[in-house]
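Figure 2 data, in text form.
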Amino acid sequence: MLGCVRIATVRQMAQVITAEDADGRSYVRRAMKKLAELGLAETNGKDGKHPIWNLTPAGQKALADGNELPARPRAGTGAKAVKAGLGPHGVAVTDTILAYDGHAHLTDWQVEVNHAIKEIGLSFNTDAVLAWPTKTSEVRLFELDNGTMSQARLAKEAWDYERYAGHRVWEGARGTNGRTYPFWQRHRYTRSKTFPRLHVVLAGKEEHLLDNRLQALAADVRGITIAVWVNTLPRLQRGEPWYEIGVDDPHRRRERYPEPVGR
């Protein structure tokens, strides 16, 4: 679990590895103490009163040597984020993963996945990416706001995804007419026919304030040309439906982001 989500509390790990009607926190505490004694796991901060655990580099190597997860050579341990005070955000991301059927698909998640296009100076990290192959798309993208971002910054993050989806690149030998293709379809999600759906999860505040942020975000991204669904973490944990606030529209997106001038 720590290899997939990077950081988690005892409560979250117990939620995954023990029966639904059992409280396995004592078992997990003992297990983590043993892993810490072996130098495979550590805690570098807290979420409230609860220690936040992550693997050490030795723990990551042991996990990789076991070949139980796909190779993730650039994945960090999460320790730097916790030390920098970002632990509560990471814990909320883990809660989001668990609420979104994380128990059944835990090894299909990756966190802090970079998306970048150097040519236009665009770079951002997606909080979590779920491998979910369908006939039209291979992943789902997740962004979490733990109540720390301004409304404007939250909206900008959604529009950055549209910029990423709209960028096109030339393909074909120089001196020929060639044609352009979406950058993401040629260089990132090559098996997808549609740009992955973006899920925005709101947390970190009282529910009525989260509902207000949800409505404000819907207004701020009106007219966006990628699929955007939004929910609050409490609603997601209760199994309540998502709100669709953006629809994938590649034709309108292509009008908004014209062909590159040359190669």
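Caption note: The longest strand covers residues 122-131.
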